[in-house]
Amino acid sequence: MRLFKPATLVTGSFVLALGLSACGNETKAPTAAKPTAAASKIVKDDKFTHANYDKVRMTHLSLNLDVNFDEKVLDGTATIDFKVVDPKTHILKLDTKDLTIRSVQGLGRNGQWAALDYTLADKDEVLGTMLEIPFSKGMNKVRIDYRTSPTAEGLQWLSPEQTAGKKKPYLFSQAQALNARTMTPVQDTPAVRITYDATLRVPDGLLPLMSAEQGDKDENGEYHFKMPQPIPSYLLAIAVGDIKFKAINDHIGVYAEEYILDASAEEFSETPLMEEANAKLYGPYRWGRYDLIVLPPSFPFGGMENPRLSFMTPTLIAGDKSLTNVVAHELAHSWSGNLVTNSSWRDAWLNEGFTSYVENRVMEDLYGVERAEMEQYLGLEDLKRDVANAARPELTHLKMPADLAHPDDAFTQVSYVKGQFFLMFLEERFGRAKFDAFLKQYFDTYAFKSLSTEDFIKYLHDHLHKDNPDALTRAELDAWVYGPGIPDTAKQPKPDAFTKVDKARTAWLAGDTAGDTSKWSTHEWLHFLNNMPDGLTNVQLKKLDDDFSFNGHQNAEIAFAWYMQAIKADYSDVDTELEKFLMTVGRGKFIYRLYGALAGLNDDASSWAKGVYAKARPGYHPIAQRRIDAVFAKADAEVEK
Ligand SMILES: [Zn+2]
Fold this sequence. Notes:
By secondary structure, the protein is α+β, with helices and mostly antiparallel strands. Helix content is 37%, strand content 18%.
């Protein structure tokens, strides 16, 4: 079934339709090629914030914090500069979540700080607690004295035993999507951009880092940071630990715990080539330095594009650079996402789809069409699975529905891979040369601004489609953006290497040898495993492992693909290694699906998984804990039905 939901207006004219002139309050599209965000009317279209950013807007955040490992809190002040957009407004509404607010002061026109009244609303489970600060005329600076909670979802405090070095504790943050508000009072919406600075005090022997210009320690033992480019709050980031640095070139390097520092620098040694490829396509890198930090294994994501300092999972350190597309991805966010940002999480594909597209172009540039196509193919398989598992068809639209329950629901392969394939489709229709020039201009036009899907469609029309009207129809565009599933116009990648793998698998299943697999890449192994037929017997699973040694594989992607096959076949010989994997890897991409598959298999597997989870849970990130709690709750609810 194909549910088709047309775009927000019906008109016979493609041009009018793309112009979105009747689209009302969803549109704040500029009419000039170089819009000035400051001058444009701000429409509040992000429902995941309490902030009244259409009336008052934060412009700068200044943090002064103690990083207190004993109590597992950040403790100090947040000073907020703001600009009144609507002169009738005298209340600044901020997002907070699980913060203890001790006092609020405002800077009066006399240059004196004075206490201000404030109110905290009732807590909303998703949005947190609104902090309302009435301010007097002419005031544009408030200071909030506060501390975070030890259970803040955006902060993971690791004990020394939970680090590789075992001697010193570690803290790292994850603000996207709604967790900056668990770190500081803030207008926590991607529609608002702020510059920031920070002063941090940390215990001796620990190095603090932020998504900013890294500051040196001053004579008082304080570290100072500065982010001069305006960023959305979800890019606020902090890491503190026994962290060392190794340069890759004069403006790119790696931070990591000692044990993995050299291996990380080697694994990511081609990052400068990726930067060159990106800059060649889309214009210069605009953020100064680009560094990567390899975090402890509980980091729940592959990577997080914190500006100037991408946060990376150690599961990428495969020893053969086979998983560095994630580096290409996080680096690409320096253009798509960080430079040009979705204005609400309903438009997450503007960040992730563009980034997946740019990532793949860079992989093609560096490693050739075959690798790029293999990665497209694997991505498409993941997308098909997410589309099939979507709770409702609207969650497979690029433009997520207005009643989206949580931004997490937008961060599926729909935003990433469907978004990527939409841009591949546009590239194919308009031609690569024109589309490349268009994207470069788009990144330049919207640099350091936030925009909606409708803004993009209008820009696409004005700067590409108007002069090439036959390249696509409104119906085709709507099918991608406002329609469910994967449109018929999607590219079907067919890498030759995978055709050969299919033959090898068929031969192996028939009892022959798979042939020479000694030169297979990670991608080929993943294709080999992912497409095993249902109903493999335990005898076949044992032979697979005997032939190819998948159990306990050092490459986390291959190990994961193997465990998924083993779980499907209820092959319990993997339990020891699988438990080890679940106890040491905290990356959500792997563990959510492993627990999900175990919980849905049968009672034995489910209770075994619950036992492992009970042991592993304290070491997982708060985000992962919430997601896996939900996996088991859902499985239990289905059993009761
Ligand atoms: Zn991304």
